[in-house]
């Protein structure tokens, strides 16, 4: 592949971008369909008519699929040009459609409870419904485990200005925060994002230290507000759970991720037993920086200046070569994405930051968004998004409701693709310095999962335990945070981050409770799959595709048992996964041993 285009083609979806007449017609049609659907659902009250149910579910599935299609399109438009005003108007209209469809689905949940057992069994056998039966059974179980439909409806109404309002208030509060930092005799006000980049990425330790101190100070000034915010959000959650008869704070997060508590516990247990090498890695980093112990603000600072650089064409070819080692089908797919302008990678102003992969169901195409800057990080982001794209591709012919995988398995294909590429980059590094830099980045990624995310999980559990009994003061929240960090980082740091709980959005999300452990699960699950791929060789590629296709049709335990023959509630699988990442840390320690001695 040579002279690849770095801009994508969106014209195949709707010609004319945000001004497209086709797009307007599509939205009009969808709006009509959703209105019609609400009417059809209303007729299902206490209905045991299997045929009527089958057709409503088919229409609902199509509406969800169509909605995703336009959401992807408008998301792509705004990402490529954040100032596209017309795209914002389109997005506003789509948000309304999404709310109407959501409301229709809530009514459907209520109707599901009125179907009698005989009709229910017949419905599950209906040829339109059978392929999506896992999704439907899950929805019904969910509805059963909650309060009576009228009470749930009231709870939902109250949550708009209660629960979700607390979540939204956090965004307002955090948006008002600024960090005052002195630079060259001048006091500068940094946004949260700017300050974070500065304290985590700057090579100058004094600057990191100063920005971090200013950060803690700024949050200390407002900690009462954040504490009230977190307490009320948490109090609402407990009150709702109590009324539903749920006594564990982890019930809902585990259900959403289709995993058992036993799996979650054994995963953390294995991680905990394998932290020694990662503590050694942190100690080595401290030596390389020239301090006794690292502080929180040193965790993501690189100790090395060696850089690996790839032009876009080189990066693309490297990715396709590595994918080919694993699976010719995956490589051919990636080649097609590069050659057919599925990727927007150009480095130019006016684009939004970050990367994503957007699916267009029905068309069986995806688009990848990112900004390519010749770095190894950009190559691995590209591989990551291509992993998501391949996941969507292998599910392309399946019904929409069998493609709605949860957060913990959503990152399986992406992390797997990233691992293929970053592991190959380490193997083909041209010097020890280059290899050390690549390994440091990789191991820091493991530490984020095993220690940072672990500290968030421990904190959140302990906070909810105390919140169950009453309000938790800001001072106590700081204590809980540091206790959790000490435990997760095994006392390996000099200075901790007491007001982390105030500065992290994830604790305030009302759509994703416990917005932490699914990251670690996804990372290790994918690494475990990678370990099996290494063991088994080329024949694994077909198994991998079969596994991806089932990611939204069963629990994670069933998924692992069926496709990998492993039991996720036992330590073996997790241990094999952790072992792969321990090897990277050991290699880093081996390569840097000499560097410390000569210092
Ligand atoms: Zn991802």
TrEMBL record:
Reported cofactor(s): Zn(2+)
Co-factor note (free text): Binds 1 zinc ion.
Keywords: Hydrolase, Metal-binding, Metalloprotease, Protease, Zinc
Superkingdom as given in the UniProt entry: Bacteria
Alphabetical list of Pfam families matching this protein: Peptidase_M3, Peptidase_M3_N
Keyword Hydrolase belongs to the record: yes
Ranges where the Oligopeptidase F N-terminal domain occurs: 112-177
Residue ranges of every copy of the Peptidase M3A/M3B catalytic domain listed in the record: 202-578
GO biological process assignments: proteolysis
One GO MF term attached to the UniProt entry: metalloendopeptidase activity
Entry similarity comment: Belongs to the peptidase M3 family.
Name of protein: Oligoendopeptidase
Organism of this sequence: Tumebacillus algifaecis
